[in-house]
Amino acid sequence: MSIVTTSTVSSTPMISKRMVVDWLGIAPFLIFALLFLILPTIYLIAGAFLTPEGSLTLKNIGDLFTKSIWDSYWISIKVSVASSLGGALIGFYLAWALVMGGLPPWVRHTFLTFSGVASNFAGVPLAFAFIATIGRLGLVTLLMRDWLGFNLYSTGFNLYSFVGLTITYMYFQIPLMVLIITPALDGMKKEWREAASILGATNGQYWLMVALPILWPSLLGTTLLLFANAFGAIATAIALTGSSLNIIPIQLYAQIRGDVLHNANLGYAMALGMIVITGISNLIYIIMRMRAERWQK
């Protein structure tokens, strides 16, 4: 009896010591999240309801519905929706080809590696790459003009417009879709297709009645994640279009950086609006992902 008691007592310090080590392991992440995510968010929320003098006010929230700011939100939403839908559609078919298209394994590994790099390629380098490729004097633009006699810009295309920014955003939206949707396609069980075939279902019926209903939460959730990813992007837009396409992140930057439009508290309110929009899309994404994981168990 005494041996059991000694063993139990001696194991308690070991458990406590291990818990301390575990918490120390995640401490850098918790500190990083606190300093660069939680505290700035609290600061923004508080600042959105204050005047520059520190008094409580709702004027900053009301100013969000002025025409210029409302138009900026609307342009950002349209660019985000267009790039997320295009990225989701093209990315899904690419992922489908990699997982179910019978391609050699090395093609899948190479493409997924490239997608991991391309999904993080944004900002000034991405804007410069598109300007050098399909800008007015870009390589592809000149090749099509000189070799094919086709002037891309005579069709009304403009890289520095809504369409151009959407296409540029899709460069990192498509590989991000591939990375996220590939595990969902991997989770599709062969038994489901075999059972559908035994019951006489065609390939189209299988996708319409079995595969797509199962993949739908993953598809919708990932599309919302792409929307949030595009909605907060600023470096690519400001390097590509400057202020010609006044999306909300650019107007927020103008409010906070201290130029003629300087009104930090209004900028905090604009940031709060962006947090609400992206927060809703991310929340729906988490719900959809949980539902998809439950379907595929």
Automatic annotation (TrEMBL):
Compartments where found: Cell membrane
Domain ABC transmembrane type-1: from-to ranges: 73-285
Gene Ontology terms: biological process: transmembrane transport
InterPro entries recorded: MetI-like (IPR000515), MetI-like_sf (IPR035906)
Keyword hit for Zinc-finger: no
Membrane topology reported for the UniProt record: Multi-pass membrane protein
Transmembrane spans: 20-46, 73-99, 111-139, 159-185, 206-227, 233-254, 266-288
Gene Ontology cellular component terms for the protein in this record: plasma membrane
Signal peptide: none
Keyword Chloroplast (UniProt): no
Record keywords, A-Z: Cell membrane, Membrane, Transmembrane, Transmembrane helix, Transport
Entry similarity comment: Belongs to the binding-protein-dependent transport system permease family. CysTW subfamily.
Name under which the protein is recorded: Iron(III)-transport system permease protein sfuB
Organism: Rhizobium freirei PRF 81
